[in-house]
Amino acid sequence: QVRLVESGGGLVQAGGSLRLSCAASGRSFNNYAMGWFRQAPGKEREFVAVTGWSGGSTYYSDSVKGRFTISRDNAKNTAYLQMNRLKPEDTAVYYCNADSLLSRILGGHADAWGQGTQVTVSS
């Protein structure tokens, strides 16, 4: 099973940017779709973005579309989430996940999850 470690979270002012990274180890990274979810305090975990194994297929939640970009570098076994024009409501713990099926990621049922990284956006 693939193991995932997120990094890049932190504190940023509204309107700023952050780039999250998700480093994968274990089984072949190229075989996995990669996704990002987030969970704010007192709220359920929600889908943010997903990309297929080649990076050619990407999907976003309506709340981040046009501001966030998901990408991956298969040579580095790493997925990224570039977050621009951040808003206070983007404050959450961000989790990356992986699964051989993109549809399972969209449904929140991915096989592998990272431990999460905190993103805090101040107003």
Q: How would you characterize the overall build of this protein?
A:
With 123 residues, this protein is mainly beta. It has one helix spanning 102-106, and strands at 3-7, 10-13, 18-25, 33-39, 46-51, 58-60, 68-73, 78-83, 92-99, 112-113, 117-122. The strands form 2 sheets. Strands 2, 4, 5, 6, 9, 10 and 11 form a 7-stranded mixed beta sheet that branches. The chain has a 4-stranded antiparallel beta sheet with strand order 1-3-8-7, with no helix packed on it. A hairpin with a 6-residue loop joins β4 (33-39) and β5 (46-51). The longest helix has 5 residues, at 102-106.
Summarize the structure.
With about 120 residues, this protein is mainly β. It has one helix spanning about 100-105, and strands at about 5, 10-15, 20-25, 35-40, 45-50, 60, 70-75, 80-85, 90-100, 110-115, 115-120. Helices cover about 5% and strands about 50% of the residues.
Task: Name a few traits of the molecule.
123 residues; mainly beta; 7-stranded mixed beta sheet; 4-stranded antiparallel beta sheet
List the helices and strands and how they pair.
Blueprint: E1 3-7, E2 10-13, E3 18-25, E4 33-39, E5 46-51, E6 58-60, E7 68-73, E8 78-83, E9 92-99, H1 102-106, E10 112-113, E11 117-122
Parallel strand pairs: 2-11
Antiparallel strand pairs: 1-3, 3-8, 4-5, 4-9, 5-6, 7-8, 9-10, 9-11
Number of distinct helices: 1
Alpha carbon gyration radius? 13 Å
Mean pLDDT: 95
Shape annotation: globular
Report the helical percentage: under 10%
What gap, in angstroms, lies between the N and C termini? 39 Å
Order of SSEs: EEEEEEEEEHEE
Q: Unreliable runs, pLDDT <50, ≥5 residues?
A: none
Structural class: mainly beta
Number of strands: 11
How is the biggest beta sheet arranged?
Answer: 7 strands, mixed
**How big a fraction of the residues is strand?**
over 45%
